[in-house]
UniProtKB/TrEMBL annotation:
Pfam families: Aldedh (PF00171). It comes from Lentimicrobium saccharophilum. Its EC number is 1.2.1.3. GO terms for molecular function: aldehyde dehydrogenase (NAD+) activity. The keyword Manganese does not apply. The keyword Oxidoreductase applies. Gene3D superfamilies: Aldehyde Dehydrogenase, Chain A, domain 1, Aldehyde Dehydrogenase, Chain A, domain 2. The lineage of its organism: Bacteria, Pseudomonadati, Bacteroidota, Bacteroidia, Bacteroidales. Belongs to the aldehyde dehydrogenase family. This is aldehyde dehydrogenase (NAD(+)). It comes from the Bacteria. Residues 27-494 form the Aldehyde dehydrogenase domain. Homotetramer.
Length: 513
């Protein structure tokens, strides 16, 4: 194991101490304190990052601002060509990068690979998009006039990513932002900075080979305390895309909103699956498992609530408990592991605190919830995923606890299920398992799920990159990734051209001076 870890770290260019900022191919001698990264898998120190300071921030932002002037003049399909090469480079490094993500964050190896695959997929998507940044053309109400809208690049885009997707969140934003003609400054979560550094080490060859100006793709690994608010209040940054908790999102939105900047907010979820008596219950069971325990419940799309029809409740709960008993919990790099550790001990504490509140409010823990001990689990971050019977209106159920706790709630009619489903502050992802078209169509209709993502016979998590990703209410309303989410990374301009020899006014106004 030690050998394997040393090997992927060296392939990725991660050394014992790493510089915390780069403007592309030039790494900056950051002078902030060291930020050691410990693996939740075994508690060992992986390597450390020297954090960026406000001064480093100033250097990077200056470079980015200058680079934008060059980058925006490169035709979009040519920018797409660079993104194509980045995608290919990621293909080459899928295995070591997936391993590092797994080891640093704790998600199991298959999910580490899956995360890198999402980066590759969005790169491919962005390459195609680079020839499809379409606007509409309109018919003017005036004779010999032409109208159309076009999309221009915005400028410097700030990307603040969360620990749970250490590398993919950047790619969803950066690959799209880049083909749109923007430059990017990435501020990764302080829990998983090595993964971010590895991404930049991987892509720097593409930037060098193509003579991409310094400042187009930047990384700045710093703590919010020292530079976070700089970033948010900086008028040179027209768009900040943030993935994180609702608490963080509120702060970002307020600070960026104060200067009338734009945000893409990807905040918390409280995702439910409605398990109907008309559903394929084996499929519903597997989806619930994947939804609730994949990434140890640390996806914003994780399934947190199961709304189960009364007539199948007991049977479904018992089957679920049986399935939970089979889960192989262990080292995330072990290919047989299905559930890895939580990201750190703070997350374990939150997991335990939530259970105390469940019991306090009158809920019942029906399975799991313990912290594992023993040599294999010495990091203290391994837990047994938990199942609890609760009421939807418990205050703890209304919150997003970023841990594998699955709430079971009974319903009697579809109306009641939909009402319970929507009765939480968050609105990211949702699902129904049913083969009854009246139920599924109602769930997808405007009187159904109020979430940004609504699935039929699929779990709440594991969205494809081709769709727009994001949610409503306290989830923040942002959309990233596929469909036309790219429009948020550009500024729209409406153009009207007069090719007549008259000057007719719109609305038929006569204005003869
Ligand atoms: C997140 O947890 O921040 O749909 C994103 C999914 C992944 C993305 C999760 N494609 O589960």
């Amino acid at each position: 194991d030690n050998h394997r870890i040393a090997e992927f770290l060296s392939r990725l260019g991660i050394s014992e101490h790493n510089k915390g900022a780069t403007s592309g191919t030039v790494w900056i001698d950051t002078k902030g304190g060291p930020n050691p990264s410990y693996s939740p898998a075994d508690g060992k120190l992986i390597a450390s990052v020297t954090l960026a300071t406000g001064d480093d921030y100033a250097v990077i932002t200056q470079k980015a601002t200058e680079a934008f002037k060059i980058w925006r003049m490169i035709p979009a399909p040519k920018r797409g060509e660079i993104v194509r090469q980045i995608g290919n480079r990621l293909r080459e490094f899928k295995e070591p990068l997936g391993s590092l993500v797994s080891y640093e964050m704790g998600k199991v190896y298959q999910e580490g690979l899956g995360e890198v695959q999402e980066m590759i997929d969005i790169a491919d998507f962005a390459v195609g998009l680079s020839r499809q940044l379409y606007g509409f053309t309109m018919h003017s109400e005036r004779e010999r006039h032409r109208m159309y809208d076009q999309y221009h690049p915005l400028g410097v885009v700030g990307v603040i990513s969360a620990f749970n997707f250490p590398v993919a969140v950047w790619a969803w934003n950066a690959m799209i932002a880049m083909v749109c003609g923007n430059v990017v400054i990435w501020k990764p979560s302080s829990k998983v900075m090595l993964s971010a550094i590895a991404v930049h080490k991987i892509i720097e060859k593409v930037l060098a080979d193509n003579e991409v100006p310094e400042g187009v793709l930047n990384l700045i690994a710093g703590s919010s305390k020292h530079m976070g608010d700089n970033f948010l209040s900086d008028k040179r940054i027209p768009l900040i895309s943030v993935t994180g908790s609702t608490r963080v999102g509120r702060h970002v939105s307020k600070t960026v909103g104060e200067r009338l900047g734009r945000c893409i907010l990807e905040l918390g979820g409280n995702n439910a699956i409605i398990v109907s008596q008309y559903g394929n219950l084996n499929m519903a069971l597997r989806a619930s498992l994947f939804g609730a325990v994949a990434t140890s419940g640390q996806r914003c799309t994780s399934t947190r609530r199961l709304l189960i029809h009364d007539c199948i409740f007991d049977k479904f709960r018992d089957k679920l408990i049986d399935a939970y008993k089979q889960l192989r919990i262990g080292h995330p790099l072990d290919p047989s592991t299905v559930v890895g550790p939580l990201v750190d001990k703070d997350a374990v504490r939150a997991f335990l605190d939530a259970q105390a509140r469940i019991v306090e409010e009158g809920g019942k823990i029906v399975y799991g919830g313990q912290v594992l001990s023993g040599e294999e689990f010495a990091s203290g971050c391994y837990v047994i995923p938990c199942i609890a019977e609760v009421e939807n209106d418990f205050s703890i159920v209304q919150e997003e606890t970023f841990a594998p706790i699955l709430y079971l709630i009974k319903y009697k009619t579809l109306d009641e299920a939909i009402e319970l489903h929507n009765a939480v502050p968050q609105g990211l992802s949702s699902a129904i398992f049913s083969r009854n078209i009246i139920e599924t169509e109602r769930f997808l209709s405007h009187e159904g799920s109020d979430c940004g993502i609504a699935n039929v016979n699929i779990a709440t998590n594991g969205a494809e990159i081709g769709g727009a990703f994001g949610g409503e209410k306290e989830t923040g309303g942002g959309r990233e990734s596929g469909s036309d989410a790219w429009k948020a990374y550009m500024r729209r301009q409406t153009n009207t051209i007069n090719f007549s020899t008259e000057l007719p006014l719109a609305q038929g106004i006569k204005f003869d001076a």
